[in-house]
Amino acid sequence: MDLSEISDELFDRLVDEALEDVPPGVLRHADNVAFFVQDDPPPETPELLGVYDGVPLTERDSGSFSFVPPDTITLYKHPLIRFSEDADHLREEILVTIVHEIAHHHGIEEDRLHELGWG
């Protein structure tokens, strides 16, 4: 897919649509998570589609919920576009990446995500 075909506005719309399609319950307890979009991941991980940055819920104690900045999930636009065949596939890959990163927020590791089909 040619990067020039996907405008920032279209990509943002696809992200919004994907967020609406997140399976019920997945966003539960993710109310202190901020979503961001960046064009590219760090140079050392050029094919990274998204990343969760924060403390998984399973690793927090009761005091860690107050006065902490939000965890973040960042989607990387250019690798997602390169990975996709068309706009529909891109939207699906955005959804898979969002669910994958939210799962990390819930403490689910890579192996389990692959078993569940969200790897």
Automatic annotation (TrEMBL):
Pfam families: Zincin_1. Gene3D superfamilies: 3.30.2010.20. This is Metallopeptidase family protein.
